[in-house]
Write a structure and sequence with these properties.
The chain is an alpha+beta fold and about 170 residues long. The chain contains seven helices and seven strands. The chain has a three-stranded mixed β-sheet. Strands 1-2 form a two-stranded antiparallel ribbon. A two-stranded antiparallel sheet has the order 6-7. β3, α4 and β4 form a beta-alpha-beta unit. The longest helix is centred in the N-terminal third of the chain and has 11 residues.
Amino acid sequence: MQNHSPLVSEIMSGPVVTIEPGARVEEVFGLAERRAVHHFPIVDHGALVGLVCTCDLRDASPHSCAADLAHQRVVTISPDGRADEAALLMAKEAVGSVVVVGNEGVVGMLTREDVARSAPELAGLIEEGHCSACGNRHHLKPGPNGEFLCADCLERGSTDPWFDTPALD
C-alpha cells in the first residue's frame, strides 16, 4: 500500500522566523505581532538550540533573555517526512508544532493547523494531545503523572490550592 500523505515540505510554513539566543522578550513579542507567529526557533550560528513560544514569555520581564525561558528539547522533523508521521509525532509529544530541519538547518515550521488543512483525514491523530484538566489543545506542557496540562491550567494548579486537576491530585 502506498502512502499518500503529503510531504512535510509541501505543507510547512516558511520561511520560518528564527531568533538569536540573545533576543529579548520585548523583541520576540514585537516579531510575533508583526509576523503573526508565536513559535520561534532559536538558532545560534546555524544550529537549532531551542524553541520559545509567546506563552512561555507572558510573565517575563520585557528585558529578559527569551532563550532563558525556551525549551531546550525541541521536537523536529525532516522536510522529507510525511504529514502522517508529523501528526503522530505531535500527538506523542503533545506539541502543537514541530520545527522542520533539513541539511541547511531550520527550514520551516509545521503546525497542527497546517496538517489539518492539508490532510483532513489526519485530524484524529492531531487531536489526541490535550490538557487533562480543561481539554485545551494549545500550549501544552508535561505535567505530573505523564499527563499534559495547558500553560493556564499548569499555572492555576501551582498557585490555586482549590484548582483540581487529575494530574495534580
